Amino acid sequence: MIALEAEGLAKNYGARAAVRGLSFQVPKGAIYGVLGPNGAGKSSTLRMLVGVLKPSAGRIAMLGGPITRETLRRVGYLPEERGLYRNMNARAAIAYLARLKGTPAQAAFKRADDLLNAHGLGSVKRKRIKTLSKGMAQKVQVLAAIAHEPDLIIFDEPFSGLDPVNQRVLEETIRAQAAAGRTILFSTHVMEHAERLCDRILLIAQGAKAFEGTVSEALALAPSIATLETEGGFDLAAALAPKGFTIEAIGEEHGNRRWRAKLDGGGSRQLLQACVEAGAPLSLFEPARASLHEAFVALVGDRVAHGSTR
Amino acid sequence: MAPVFLVARREYLAYVTAWGFWVSLITAPLLFAALIFAPLLLARAEPPRALAIVAEQSADARNVEAGFEREARTDARAEIEIYLEASAPGVAERALAAFDAAPDRASAIVAARVEAGARAAAFPSPAPRYFVVPAPGADIEALKPYLSGERTLADGRALFGALNIRRDQAGAPSIEYWSANLQHDEPTSIARRAMRLEMQREALAAQGLARGEADRLAAFEPKVAQFDPRPSAGASGEVTLRQRAPFFAAIGLSLVLWTVVFSVANMLLSGVIEEKSNKILDTLLTSVTPIDLLLGKLLGVAAVSATLFVFWGGLGASLMQFAPASMGDSFIGQLAAAFAEPRLVVAFAVGFVTGYLMFGAIFLALGSLCESIQEAQTLLGPVTIILMLPMLLIGPAVDNPNSPLIQAASWVPLFTPFLMLIRAPTGLSWAEIAGQGALLLATVALLLFLAAQVFRAGIVNQLSVTALFGRKKQRD
Q: Is residue B376 situated within a structural domain?
């Protein structure tokens, strides 16, 4: 079952193309990440998905049909630029947004109470938004986005502005919503969140799709590396060059030399075997797991990827 | 509840639950009253101005001093007459006759007060604008230190001015007025009238007639009445307070209309700017359409205005309940009755709805283009000048509601709500009502349509003043 599908989605701001022909599918019940550096077109894509922006081209199918007011009532959205009515209290703000989505008044206030209590904000539910800390206000807005129990939740950069503790809390909230059968799509430029949470990811660079698939599929595209240490003055780079390995010296410690090997094509087992065959006096052999960021760099190039990704 | 009503409800509650709203609700009528009565009170607050008279002939000095006394008595009579007409018209004639019969100003005021009796509890005690003091010097040279402020009178007060009355060889008088205050020359007018009367007396005496004949001739006053030729004025057609009251009420209502329309239009402007700066619009736009949002805001703030009118109307009606029945014929009573006249109520209601929708739509559209109040102010400057134009037309409309200028201006939809209201008591033709009404409604519809387009562009596509006229802002 597909919860959300975009086909050939494009958005132009005057002569500038912010999004260029994006196509992807979000399976029902999945946690789906849209990743890319700042300016990649993530927010424009998400704003088109929730009907705030009109696409310049392309088609969107959501929860089994085109975007309509009725479908949007089943969507929860946390925009990148966040804000609530500063003079409303937390409870009223959540209930108001839930009511705008069609939740009856009594149920909206009950859900607001339940959510605030469950997320440790019960003591501030009567406090005005302007008196809350930035992190608390952001949590209130996340709760407002899910108070009407939507089938599809779309969060734009939900982790930005949160401290590490609250980032973990939000990760738990996202997992809980997914466990309840909801589909979650969120954008981020912090790859670690996507690595920990996502079933599938969409990597965007300069408005276009760079990759779409599972996290492990993305990681497989990244070049693996290994860190090695040889005793004495042994020249590992020279010894393994004939066997096709690219190795560079990265330093020296206590008379031992350190090396970094790129495992292009070959695995760590082959590298270790080549070292043994070359008689290398190894004191350290440490294969490293590639990160999503490295996969992204491999896909789009260093200059594009290092916009603001980590 | 439909989203548009939820938006309207939130807008309404956001204003009426603020304590500032109730403060302004209560203080506005007080400020309005202060605006009317403050000039009167300020004028009374100023102490009488001291004047000295030096004259070559002592009779001239006495005549001019008597002229100032007459002027003060006339002023006092006018003030008492206004008071009695407004508060107790039933006793006005008797009290004024008592005033006229008294020998001098002070006793005239007492006589009128006694005649008015308990029904005039807060009877005015008018103070003269000038009082003539004995000259502290024999001639103007001697008075100059007092006039320039170097010296004060024996009682410590300043000498405001001095009149020097001279006679030439043929006996013709001339008046010199000396004062450091160059703007105020009313004493010359009073002295001129006094000396003119004296010259008339002398001229009559020269022809062998009694001097007092001049005073008798000066007192001649024809009876003046005003009539309205239209059938609607009734059989006699005489214009009384009852006929005039609706015009005064229309002027008051048009000022209230203008003030309220622009106050609530400003609420719309600041409300949408607040939402833009609070970054809440993206959240709202997944639940409501921009048009729902626009309509909800217009409805919500209209309800705020309705609260204002209900409160003020209720306050006025309550106050009238406590007013004595005798006030029904007074100016205030007639004015109060005029406020409730159906033609004025309808003109005010139509004027408010159309004026609010027109100017509210303009302000909402402007607000959607601005990120801050400061940015809005750059746009509001020229817009405010246009919006002030109806106020500039209110003056000429009061003077002649059917002048060609006002009739032509009534066809300009931005002015129609205000001018229609002022012209309502004169009796508008059905052709004017239908024509101007249709034009007004068409303009309201067009402005709402255009405002909706700008509003949508402003809040959805982030179209802004900066993007239009300055550095472009782009989103991720």
A: yes
Q: Residue B476 and residue A79: Cβ atoms within 8 Å? A: no
Residues of A in contact with B476 (CB under 8 A): 38-44, 80
Q: Which residue(s) pair with B54 in the sheet? A: B164
Residue B240 lies in a domain: yes
- Which residue range(s) make up the domain with B87? 49-218
B136/A contact by beta carbon, under 8 A: no
Q: Do A141 and B283 touch (CB under 8 A)?
A: yes
Least Cα separation, residue B4 to chain A (angstroms) = 9
Residue A219: DSSP 8-state: H
Tens of pLDDT, residues A70-112:
899 999 999 988 888 888 999 999 999 999 999 999 999 999 9
Q: Which domain holds residue A142?
A: 2-213
CA A245 – CA A266 distance, rounded (Å): 9
**Does residue B25 share a domain with residue B117?**
no
Partners of A44 on chain B (C-beta within 8 Å) are 475-476
Chain A contact for B70 (CB, 8 A cutoff): no
Q: Who contacts B288 (Cβ-Cβ below 8 Å, separation ≥6)? A: A100, B3, B4, B7, B296
B422, part of any domain: yes
CB-count exposure of residue A255 (10 Å: 0-12, 13-18, 19+): exposed
Per-residue pLDDT of chain A in tens (310 residues, 90 and over written 9): 899 999 999 998 888 899 999 999 999 999 999 998 888 899 999 999 998 888 999 999 999 889 888 899 999 999 988 888 888 999 999 999 999 999 999 999 999 999 999 988 999 999 999 999 888 898 999 999 999 999 999 999 999 888 888 889 899 999 999 999 999 999 988 888 888 899 999 999 888 998 899 988 888 777 778 889 998 888 988 888 888 888 888 888 888 899 988 776 557 788 888 899 989 999 888 887 777 777 887 777 766 666 544 4
With CB atoms and an 8 Å threshold, state whether A16 touches B474. Answer: yes
Per CB-CB distance under 8 Å, the chain A contacts of B282 are: 47, 52, 77, 79-81
B379-411: pLDDT as tens digits: 777 778 877 888 888 888 888 888 888 889 999
Is B11 inside any structural domain?
A: yes
B374 Cβ partners below 8 Å, 6+ apart?
Answer: none
Do A252 and A176 share a domain, yes or no?
A: no
| Interface size, chain A vs chain B, as Cβ–Cβ contacts under 8 Å | 74
User: What is the reported pTM?
Assistant: 0.73
Predicted pLDDT of residue B148:
93
Do residues B267 and B411 both lie within one domain?
Answer: yes
- Helix ranges (H only) for B129-240 are 140-147, 186-206, 212-218
Shared-domain flag, residues B96 and B153: yes
Alpha-carbon dihedral B37, B39, B44, B46, rounded to 10 degrees: 150
Residues A114 and A184 in one domain: yes
| DSSP-derived 3-state class of residue A119 | coil
Domains of chain A: total: 2
Contact between chains at B285 and A51 (C-beta distance less than 8 A): yes
Considering the domain architecture, whether residues B13 and B62 belong to the same structural domain is answered as no
Distance CA B290, CA B424 (A): 37
- CA dist A261 and A228 (Å) reads 8
Question: In A, which residues are within 8 Å of B276 by CB distance?
Answer: none
Q: Are B113 and B248 in the same domain?
A: no
ipTM of the complex: 0.77
Structural domain includes residue A297: no
Shared domain check, A239 and A95:
no
Retrieve residue B454's tokens.
């700008």
Q: How far is B285 from chain A (nearest CA, A)?
A: 6
- The partner residues of A19 in beta bridges, in order of sequence, read A11
Across chain B, mean pLDDT equals: 85
Q: In this predicted structure, which of A122-131, B202-211, B233-242, B312-321 has the lowest mean pLDDT? A: B233-242
B408 in the same domain as B297: yes
